């Protein structure tokens, strides 16, 4: 039934969006196949090939979490018309594939290698020119497989992860909405294993944290970096600044550690949003890069992508595409904005100047405030389409339940490039808690557009003892225009996260706190 519905969707797409290019090479058309995994599980797949003689470069697409092998039909057809043999498959546990969901674990990686075996034995694929690509789940499987199977010579990982621990527990804070979305999809469209169910139960119960992290670590490409660098596949990664499922900083760190050919692209949007239209066969800058990447590293076409600056940023606030030789070059300086004493009357402190001492401000975490990161997929997804990010009217932020610091009016554009960091010093009344920091671009009327935000939590620490937290916010490219102000808001609740705050818990913020802002 699930596969029938997908076939119907493909038929609709074929009728509405697939005009055959005048210069398109003939293909075999799609044929559906079964591939037996090492343990006998049957994986559902499809393959399309050029009809030209000889061996061809090949691309393998593992499908995304919750989707199946029909996900990539538009891109697979385009690649086949360009001379590639393309195989797409549904990982175990999903839709009509057998077995149970392995979450990019050892069984999934063994399955990927078996798919490569089948590809080489049963198609015109050239075993020395194989690439893997995918969105989300497919991206993670592709990256990890490239560390385990040296036949993978190029990877295009779109909206993927390199560190699943950071995705689940970034800032030691559990993700609520993103995990619920993934777990819900698994319950509806897949078959979960006892191991998966136990890990998820532990995650929500906030127990066996080392065990959950070990499960996630084994499913992180960063854990296999030495092997990946030994194999040296050409790795392209693309994602959205606002990806709430796999926040972008992990890709920045991973890209910096790669030894082989590499490229990193960021654009506005949430998880799988920047590349979404390309899945329907429409022009899309991410898929254009994917095609150029494979043309260069699998087909040997000298299209120049390997000589271009490998870090590409599309700004959240518009403007030309920027390219840099490495991540460090995206910013030229780091501006430090000290958090000043909070005025007892206005409840607002000054953001800027030297970080001072000798002050404190108690903030209660009984209620949430209007400062918020939005709704997973929807808020940042709409921002990519409309240019409108999550907003908050700063005067409406409850000063009893948040710390607020407001900067001076900018005399010229402030060009933020990279990851801002908040160094917060505070004394909590409880042994466990969470704070969430939000950075806003505020106009003359007090409306703040959310630039970036991040949480940090602590568990079973000493109560009523001063502590510091360095909150690394997700990377961004944002221009604050002249006449606007920066604002920093720190509260204790956000619907995106499972916070650790107790009723009547509070923290006292104090001096020697600041915001470090990378700019150029």
Set down the secondary structure blueprint.
Layout: H1 2-17, E1 31-36, E2 42-48, E3 56-62, H2 73-81, E4 85-89, H3 106-122, E5 125-135, H4 137-148, E6 152-158, H5 164-169, E7 174-175, H6 177-189, H7 194-205, H8 209-217, H9 225-231, E8 234-240, H10 249-257, E9 262-267, H11 276-279, H12 285-297, E10 311-313, E11 322-324, E12 333-342, E13 348-351, E14 360-364, H13 378-386, E15 391-393, E16 402-407, E17 414-418, E18 421-428, E19 433-442, E20 447-458, E21 467-472, E22 476-480, E23 485-491, E24 497-498, E25 506-510, E26 514-519
Parallel strand pairs: 3-4, 3-5, 5-6, 6-8, 8-9, 9-10, 13-16
Antiparallel strand pairs: 1-2, 2-4, 7-24, 10-11, 12-13, 12-26, 14-25, 15-20, 16-23, 17-22, 18-21, 18-25, 18-26, 19-20, 19-23
Describe this structure in words.
A hairpin with a 5-residue loop joins strand 1 (31-36) and strand 2 (42-48). Helix 4 packs across helix 9. The chain has 520 residues and is of the alpha+beta class. It is 26% helix and 30% strand. It has helices at 2-17, 73-81, 106-122, 137-148, 164-169, 177-189, 194-205, 209-217, 225-231, 249-257, 276-279, 285-297, 378-386; strands at residues 31-36, 42-48, 56-62, 85-89, 125-135, 152-158, 174-175, 234-240, 262-267, 311-313, 322-324, 333-342, 348-351, 360-364, 391-393, 402-407, 414-418, 421-428, 433-442, 447-458, 467-472, 476-480, 485-491, 497-498, 506-510, 514-519. Strands 12, 13, 14, 15, 16, 18, 19, 20, 21, 23, 25 and 26 form a 12-stranded mixed β-sheet that branches. Strands 1-2-4-3-5-6-8-9-10-11 form a 10-stranded mixed β-sheet, sandwiched between helices.
């Amino acid at each position: 039934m699930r596969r029938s519905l997908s076939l119907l969707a493909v038929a609709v797409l074929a009728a509405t969006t697939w005009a055959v290019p005048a210069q398109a090479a003939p293909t075999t058309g799609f044929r559906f196949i079964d591939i037996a995994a090492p343990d006998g599980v049957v994986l559902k797949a499809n393959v399309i090939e050029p009809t030209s003689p000889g061996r061809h470069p090949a691309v393998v697409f593992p499908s995304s979490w919750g989707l199946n092998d029909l996900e990539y039909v538009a891109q697979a057809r385009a690649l086949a018309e360009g001379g590639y043999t393309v195989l797409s498959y549904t990982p175990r546990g999903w839709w009509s594939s057998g077995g149970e969901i392995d979450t990019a674990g050892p069984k999934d990686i063994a399955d990927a290698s078996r798919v490569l075996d089948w590809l080489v034995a049963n198609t015109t694929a050239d075993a020395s020119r194989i690439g893997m690509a995918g969105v989300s789940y497919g991206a993670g499987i592709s990256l990890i497989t490239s560390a385990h199977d040296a036949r993978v010579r190029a990877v295009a990982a779109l909206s993927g992860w390199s560190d699943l621990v950071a995705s689940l527990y970034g800032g030691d804070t559990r993700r609520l909405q993103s995990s619920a979305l993934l777990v819900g999809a698994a319950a509806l469209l897949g078959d979960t294993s006892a191991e998966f169910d136990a890990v998820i139960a532990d995650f929500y119960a906030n127990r066996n944290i080392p065990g959950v992290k070990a499960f996630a670590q084994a499913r992180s490409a960063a854990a296999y970096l030495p092997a990946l660098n030994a194999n040296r596949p050409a790795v392209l990664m693309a994602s959205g600044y606002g990806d709430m499922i796999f926040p972008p900083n992990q890709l920045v760190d991973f890209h910096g550690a790669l030894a082989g050919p590499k490229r990193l692209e960021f654009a506005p949007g949430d998880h799988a949003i920047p590349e979404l239209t390309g899945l329907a066969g429409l022009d899309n800058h991410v898929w254009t890069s994917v095609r150029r990447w494979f043309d260069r590293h699998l087909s040997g076409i000298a299209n120049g992508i390997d000589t271009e600056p490998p870090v590409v940023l599309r700004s959240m606030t518009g403007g030309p595409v920027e390219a840099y030789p490495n991540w460090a070059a995206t910013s030229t300086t780091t501006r430090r904005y000290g958090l000043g004493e909070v005025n007892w009357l206005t409840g607002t402190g000054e953001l800027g100047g030297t970080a001072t001492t000798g002050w404190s401000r108690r903030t209660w975490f009984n209620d949430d405030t209007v400062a918020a990161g939005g709704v997973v997929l929807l808020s940042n997804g709409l921002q990519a389409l409309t240019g409108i990010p999550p907003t908050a009217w700063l005067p409406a932020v409850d000063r009893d339940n948040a710390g607020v610091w407001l900067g001076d009016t900018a005399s010229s554009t402030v060009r933020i490039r990279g990851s801002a960091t908040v160094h917060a010093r505070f004394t909590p009344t409880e042994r466990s808690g969470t704070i969430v920091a939000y950075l806003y671009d505020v106009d003359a009327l007090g409306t703040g557009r959310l630039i970036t935000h991040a949480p940090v939590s602590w568990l079973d620490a000493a109560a009523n003892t001063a502590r510091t937290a360095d909150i690394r916010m997700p990377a961004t490219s944002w221009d604050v225009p002249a006449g606007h102000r920066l604002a920093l808001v720190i509260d204790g609740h956000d619907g995106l996260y499972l916070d650790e705050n107790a009723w009547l818990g509070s923290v006292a913020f104090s001096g020697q706190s600041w915001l470090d802002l990378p700019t150029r």
